[in-house]
Write a structure and sequence with these properties.
42% helix; five-stranded parallel beta sheet; five-stranded antiparallel beta sheet; binds arginine; elongated; Rossmann fold; Argininosuccinate synthetase, chain A, domain 2; alpha/beta
Length: 394
């Protein structure tokens, strides 16, 4: 009998996948559930898979790798899609695909299955990653084959086959949460004019509940990556969890946008990404100080392209590797500290410092920079035969 590894979240639609593969397609199912920082308790999720007929349930803690190898790379690259989506969902797909392939090999699977319903972003990404990493594996999408389109369709199927009730959170939205952020999809009938009610948001507290007193936080970076909070060395996960807590308290990192999907259709998306928002903001502030003008301006172009490639499921490509090589070079001197001030619903950059600062207070004035700078230059040249750089030469 052939075997499939299923990307499995524990939701009812995924139980349907197990049931259908086993009973209709006569395929043995092993499941994989990765902990990316979503709130579900994965041991319980695994047990439900076994109850529904899976022969084994793999669980792995993906958090450190996800943040360090994917989110922080994207952070260094300033990658935000269109109006500011930090790509929390999109960035979790490459490590998910890697892990699915690893398990498929280990378990001798011929198939990889997933619970996407149509040609949405997630399906395009996951399938293109699987095809890149393991072209020999066959991909099967049970919900798509079954023609199940809505949660109501799922309920009907579950009743008919007497599947265990999914105990996952009942949500008005399609939620995809991890440590880098949460995506809340409002669904096709969402009125673009209507403000989402406050209880839509699940990571950040209400803006009106944010503390009255502002908070300050100092984030230290080395070569474009965040390494410390308030002067204390901080590991990857600790960094993101701490910034998520702080940002959530001040309700920062919310986004309500219209987004261009891979298919070309526009969709309204709600996001919350407190840590990613604060880290991107601080990182950009440090780049302003340490990158010279040509690099800083061109970095914008490359950051956009980086975001776009992540969005379109092109992580495992020479283009991404080449862009990372560019960022290896330009981020070398993005080292220093940025001070942020958090107040109800917003955060501001209020301080920055770097040993590689290109800011020259000695050459700057409110006006007449040119004349003053020229005079200063002549003076320095005559004293030292050189002048302090405002452009980095490497
Ligand atoms: N629009 C976002 C993206 O394409 C979020 C997708 C979230 N996925 C989900 N199953 N809710 O990356």
């Amino acid at each position: 009998m052939s075997k499939a590894v299923l990307a499995y979240t524990g939701a009812l639609d995924n139980l349907i996948c197990i049931h259908w593969l086993r009973t209709v397609r006569n395929i043995k199912v092993v499941t994989f559930s990765g902990n990316f920082g979503q709130p579900e308790y994965l041991e319980e999720v695994g047990e439900r898979a076994l109850e529904t007929g899976a022969i084994s349930a793999h669980i792995a803690d993906m958090r450190e790798r996800f943040l360090h190898d994917f989110c922080f790379q994207a952070l260094r690259a300033g990658a935000k899609y269109e109006s500011g989506y930090v790509l929390s969902s999109a960035l979790s797909r490459p490590p998910l695909a890697q892990e699915l392939v690893r398990i498929a090999r280990e378990e001798g699977c011929e198939y990889v299955a997933h619970g996407c319903r149509g040609i949405g972003n997630d399906q395009v990404r996951l399938e293109s990653y699987l095809q890149t990493l393991a072209p020999d594996l066959k991909i099967v999408a049970p919900l798509f084959e079954l023609g199940l389109k809505t949660p109501e369709d799922d309920e009907t199927y579950a009743k008919r086959w007497n599947l265990p009730r999914a105990t996952n959170r009942k949500m008005r939205y399609n939620v995809d949460q991890n440590l880098w952020g949460v995506a809340l999809q409002l669904g096709p009938r969402a009125d673009l004019w209507v403000e989402p009610p406050d209880d839509t948001y699940i990571m950040t507290r209400k803006i009106s509940d944010a503390p009255d007193k502002p908070s300050y936080v100092e984030i230290g970076f080395e070569a474009g990556l965040p390494v410390s909070i308030d002067g204390e060395r901080t590991g990857t996960m600790d960094m993101v969890e701490t910034m998520n807590r702080l940002g959530a308290q001040y309700a920062v990192g919310r986004l309500d946008v219209i987004e261009d999907r891979i298919s070309g259709l526009k969709a309204r998306e709600i996001y919350e990404a407190p840590a990613a928002h604060l880290l991107h903001q601080a990182h950009t502030a440090l780049e302003e100080l340490t990158l010279d003008k040509d690099v800083f301006q061109f970095r914008d172009v490359t950051a956009r392209r980086y975001a776009d490639l992540v969005y379109r499921g092109k992580w495992f490509t020479p283009f991404r590797e080449a862009l990372d090589a560019w960022f290896d070079v330009i981020e070398r001197h993005v080292t220093g500290t940025v001070k942020l001030k958090l107040m109800g619903g917003t955060s501001l950059v209020v301080g920055r410092q770097s040993p590689h600062s290109l800011y020259r207070s000695d050459m700057l004035s409110y006006d007449g920079d040119v004349e003053r700078a020229a005079r200063r230059r002549r003076q320095i040249d005559s004293e030292h035969g050189s002048r302090p750089p405002t452009t980095r030469k490497e």
